């Protein structure tokens, strides 16, 4: 079930990428069968999405349950110009359980901790099988633009956001330059 759903999401991303995106393909050899007479290769077209929001690189090392994505910092945020690496792990019972999504790039944000864990309701109790990885990535981009300091993963950063937004934005820009801009 999970593999079928993941493949469907890839196909849907190809057909109908999120707003302001362009889509492209690359091929992944799923497996090859050789019986001395003939060789059959099974390929799947994987989609990558490119926009100002994110660039989805897709599965890692032929593992359909482990993806990597690169989120581009939204231009209307202190993360503008940053390139943030994200890992996505689909559980075997996806879509009935949410994917595990984490930043690999350090981010100064009240809803993202030093391990890259993300405090986002749709990745926890608000998950629904109707959600897709495309919607998850768009929600993460939205979270970068509009943090939720009332449900923080890092209370100190949430406090700074609420009491000294200029300092928060300056620190977030500094971290973006240091960790997400090469």
Count of strand segments:
6
Average pLDDT works out at 80
Number of separate helices: 4
Q: What is the radius of gyration? A: 18 Å
Q: Which percent range fits the helix content? A: 25-40%
Number of domains: 1
Q: What kind of assembly state do the chains in view correspond to?
A: single chain
**CATH topology tier name:** Ubiquitin Conjugating Enzyme
Protein name: UBC core domain-containing protein
Pathway: Protein modification
Transmembrane segments: 40-61
Organism: Brassica campestris
Textual characterization of the structure:
The protein is of the alpha+beta class and 182 residues long. A hairpin with a 4-residue loop joins strand 1 and strand 2. It is built from 4 helices and 6 strands; from the N terminus they run H-E-E-E-E-E-E-H-H-H. 28% of the residues lie in helices and 30% in strands. The chain has a single domain (2-179), classed as Ubiquitin Conjugating Enzyme (Roll), CATH 3.10.110.10. Helix 3 packs across helix 4 (165-179).
């Amino acid at each position: 079930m999970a593999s079928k759903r993941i493949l469907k999401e890839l196909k849907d991303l190809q057909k109908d990428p999120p707003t302001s995106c362009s889509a492209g393909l690359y091929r992944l050899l799923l497996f090859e069968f050789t019986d001395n007479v003939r060789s059959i290769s099974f390929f799947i077209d994987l989609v990558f999405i490119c926009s100002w929001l994110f660039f989805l690189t897709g599965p890692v090392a032929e593992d359909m349950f482990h993806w990597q994505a690169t989120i581009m910092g939204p231009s209307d945020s202190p993360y503008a110009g940053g390139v943030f690496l994200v890992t996505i792990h689909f559980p075997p019972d996806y879509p009935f359980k949410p994917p595990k999504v984490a930043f690999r790039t350090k981010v100064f944000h009240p809803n993202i901790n030093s391990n890259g864990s993300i405090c986002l309701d749709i990745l926890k109790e608000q998950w629904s099988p109707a959600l897709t990885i495309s919607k998850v990535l768009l929600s993460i981009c939205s979270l970068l633009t509009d943090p939720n300091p009332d449900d923080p993963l890092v209370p100190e950063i949430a406090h700074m956001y609420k009491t000294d937004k200029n300092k928060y934005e300056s620190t977030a820009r500094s971290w973006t330059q240091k960790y997400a801009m090469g």
